[in-house]
Amino acid sequence: MRLVSLSMLKSEMVLAKSIYYRDCLVLKEGICDLERYSNSLRRLGIDYVYIEDSKSYGIEIPDAISEETRLMCKQVLRQTIEDFAAKTVVDIQELSAAINSIIDDILANPDIQISLNDIGAVDEYTFTHSVSTTVYALIIANKLGYQRSMMEKLGAGALLHDMGKILLDSKVINKAGKLNEEEFEHIKKHTTLGYEALKKCVNLTELSRIISLYHHERMDGKGYPTGTPAAELHEFARIVAIADVYDALVSDRCYRRKWSSNQAVNYLVEHSETQFDLKLVSVLIKQIAIYPNGSMVRLSDHTTGIVKEQNKNFPLRPIVRVVTDKWDQEIAPYEVDMLKELSVTIIESELEMSWDNITGSFVAEE
Ligand SMILES: [Fe+2]
Fold first, then answer.
1. 241 CA → ligand 1 middle, Å
2. How close is the Cα of 151 to the center of ligand 1, in Å?
3. 308 CA from centroid of ligand 1 (Å)
4. Does one domain contain both 162 and 226?
5. How remote is the CA of residue 353 from the centroid of ligand 1, in Å?
6. Could you tell me the distance, in angstroms and rounded to a whole number, from the CA of residue 161 to the centre of ligand 1?
7. What is the dihedral of CA 133, 134, 138, 140, to 10 degrees?
8. Structural domain boundaries, residue 334
9. Are residues 45 and 161 in the same domain?
10. C-alpha closest to that of 322 among 336, 310, 340
11. Claim to verify: residue 146 and residue 252 sit in the same structural domain
């Protein structure tokens, strides 16, 4: 299995993971002739798909949670947001069941290396992002040795951390260009509005609610809404701040393409101490595959290949299935175990091969 952009689809490729849109099945795993669906997928805002072909046969892309859990969480979150918008009572029961499914999956697979993020349509971002943020936050919590009851509280707050955004002007939320000062001030309100609104969810604990209020605070006190140094805030807020930004970086947005895991990890490290808690960043990045399974990389001998497997504790040196020579001609695939072939290094990864896909720097309003 590997991830390809729609522009790279070829007739021999088979869809390896079903595609859902608004909780409905759009294309079922196993479908061939994917090129004929590419325009329809683009219209839905989907740019990448998981495929199986002869080059990627046998390559597995592990996911921290199962597809069923991910789907169930998105459905529950969609319902919660609808209830929230309609100002009806928000059912925390179902939300708890969804969070417990995530926790079960994480506990069943505690050493998983996070490969690729969930692929979703751009306008489904709220759902895919909230679920992925919760998964990353709970992976950090598990590595920190949290008890289950604390993981449940953290998970509930993480899943609802951006709930305040539904109370904002959707034109500003979905704006493709850079926000002006006034628009940014408007976006900042999602923290306090979300926190106040979550007070109406009687079964939600205050510990869960504060995540909504404080997830944009920074270690240096230059965050919002209160400017309290994050070191003085509850660890829940510091964990979700990291999970939130990591997932935003590796996701496609309406105004920029996704970053690679490598670029996103570098961003977290560069901004540690000023923006993020370095101790918590180091916990998360140990669980992230820098060159994820299924992604294309260029090696120092200028051949290209697909990452097949991770070498534990050596994230920069995975096992790569080489598929083209240095003139970009297809060749009979062979494997390079970079832990044995020490002179070989990775010089580019798929998403970094087109740096111009990154427009502007990442900004705090994400
Ligand atoms: Fe936020």
1. 8
2. 20
3. 35
4. yes
5. 30
6. 6
7. 10
8. 296-355
9. no
10. 336
11. yes
Name the least confident of 80-84, 190-194, 335-339: 80-84
Q: How many domains does the chain have?
A: 3
Q: 259 with 326, same domain?
A: no
The CATH number of the domain where 47 resides is what? 3.90.105
pLDDT band at 353 (very low <50, low <70, confident <90, very high): low
CB of 337 closer than 8 Å to CB of 311: yes
Name the token pair of 342: 């020490």
Report how far ligand 1's centroid is from the alpha carbon of 114 (Å): 22
Distance 146 CA to ligand 1 centre (A): 24
The model carries a pTM of 0.88
According to the model, what pLDDT value does residue 304 have? Answer: 94
Same-domain pairing of 101 and 239: yes
Give the Å distance between the CA of 41 and the centre of ligand 1: 28
Q: Cα–Cα distance between 226 and 352 in angstroms, integer?
A: 36
Expressed in angstroms and rounded, the spacing between residue 207 Cα and the centre of ligand 1 is: 17
DSSP string, 189-238: HHHHHHHHHHTT-TTS-HHHHHHHHHTT--TTS--SSS---GGGS-HHHH
Q: Model confidence over 186-198: pLDDT tens digits?
A: 999 999 999 998 9
Query: 159 and 221: one domain?
Result: yes
- How far does the centroid of ligand 1 lie from the alpha carbon of residue 27, in Å? 31
Tell me, in angstroms, the distance from the centre of ligand 1 to residue 194's CA.
Answer: 9
With respect to residue 362, please indicate whether it lies within any of the assigned structural domains. no
On whether both 74 and 191 belong to a single domain, the answer is: yes
Domain contains 154:
yes
163 and 212 belong to one structural domain: yes
